[in-house]
DNA sequence: TTTT
DNA sequence: TTTT
């Protein structure tokens, strides 16, 4: 159930190969960064301007497996999901916040040729033999907490996703 | 022009009255925080769970004036916009990031009664006599960067309303 | 699975009370018409113009029960779904087509006051005692085809509320 | 201005080359049909099922020119727009209705390789030398009525199309 | 870090 | 009529 609508729709390109990890439960978690960009001419100078926006996207479970297997650096992808801002502590113990899109639907874009030319080297894993397309949808259950990879329990809010213990290592994963 | 789609759709309630400032150019900038929430039952314990997500939304120019005048704490609102992550430096000079929704469209929800009961005290400003509705759409020009006038951007959460501890108290903050 | 994205998002008001029927399987099917409108000034004459668009929305199963119970003429509602064009034959045997939005998510808008003032007389049915909110989401199973039980699908408009001739009269139909 | 939200988002493939015509005003109007499809397994029989949905999309003015020039049969495309149901009379004078998506934004998907392999034979027209991408956005003015039905462009006049004269000829254009 |  |  929900009160309110929290919906994000992205079409963009993966900045790098997806990273897949596993939660203690065994469920997969895949992270990607998607770029969208916008260009315009400066009104004063007439100079062409461009701004690229990077979006952190996280997939869970089955969707994480599919994303991990089929997406690659440069892949064009449609993602639908919701915004989630996670709180974590940096080395100095200060609260910091990261906003991500928790994906509920994903679809690869660009047909066969495109996919064929992407040359998938070393797929992260197998999602099973029966999946043959570039589409996947998350079950509508609430996204699981993202406490894979963690050494100690999260200190703060109970029902929220656990703050990954060692956010330094997580932090190192953030390319910006 | 753009490459990619970067779209956010929110329906939620304002956590507080909007804050309107002005850029050197004279253009208005209005910030609000919108809450969306989700509730479910824990699969193990069966306990009801709730998570409220707070979204920082920024309006520019005409849309900022309308938002500043018509929205109030508790207002239910539809917002469409795009994600933008801004980089700023905290006191210690460290890079930090804040993700906001730059609104391109806004519409007040909940009809006349609702609006009437919201008792708009001290409207921030006038948007002119001919505006009579709860709808507004931004011109499609790229949003200006938002470093007008201010010393340090605040991080996402500190200046936001606190996440309510339970739903009853949250309800009390909202006039319906 | 899907190839492609087929998504509709509507926020509007119900033109009349919902109609709920039952499929042979026992599953509920609810139909509503939602109005959205747009107004502008004619560029030549400067005259105010308005266009109201009516959307046929169909809900299935659990969502149909909730829509049937909670929505009423005038209710403001958020609907998300997908487009489906159904083919049928008119009396003369000619093929005709009707486009509907098959809802996958629904949320009532306008808070308690709003809902309270809508005075729900004769709810179509009961959806059970434990539902207390204005939100519902369809399971992701493909919607069943809607030719249960009935002889001839009606064309799109005849059974819809008439488009109001002007905005004042339209207002009178809606309880706010 | 608007009351309500009327939004459609499609990602799909063009069923055939776009058709571009010109309104008396000189503004272009382009029609395409976009397919989206969904597949699933029948719950009883376990048989794989597929349903393809066809969406009529109409572009106006600049967007129509771009769509006409860059899209081709098979092109994968993102379209955002709004639903509009038009009323028209068939040969026997009966009222009939057609629902279309009036596009406000369009973006070609699938990158260079993809586009290159689509081998654009006979582009419908020129949209000018400075357009080099697969993206376009409509001005936010209300969609004009659709009375193309003229063979000759009247190149000079302002971009707002006139009100339609009749729809009989339009009838002939509908491929279903 | 992607893409055009 | 597309696409997988």
UniProtKB/TrEMBL annotation, chains A, B, C, D:
CDD domains xref list: SSB_OBF
A single GO molecular function term of this UniProt record: DNA binding
Pfam families registered for this protein in UniProt: SSB (PF00436)
Polar residues composition bias: residue spans: 136-149
Coiled-coil positions: none
Keywords from the named record: DNA damage, DNA recombination, DNA repair, DNA replication, DNA-binding
Intervals of motif Important for interaction with partner proteins: 171-176
Classification via PROSITE patterns: SSB (PS50935)
Disordered, as annotated region: 113-176
Keyword set includes Cytoplasm: no
Low complexity composition bias: residue spans: 150-165
Subunit structure and binding partners: Homotetramer.
Function summary: Plays an important role in DNA replication, recombination and repair. Binds to ssDNA and to an array of partner proteins to recruit them to their sites of action during DNA metabolism.
Name of the protein described by the UniProt record: Single-stranded DNA-binding protein
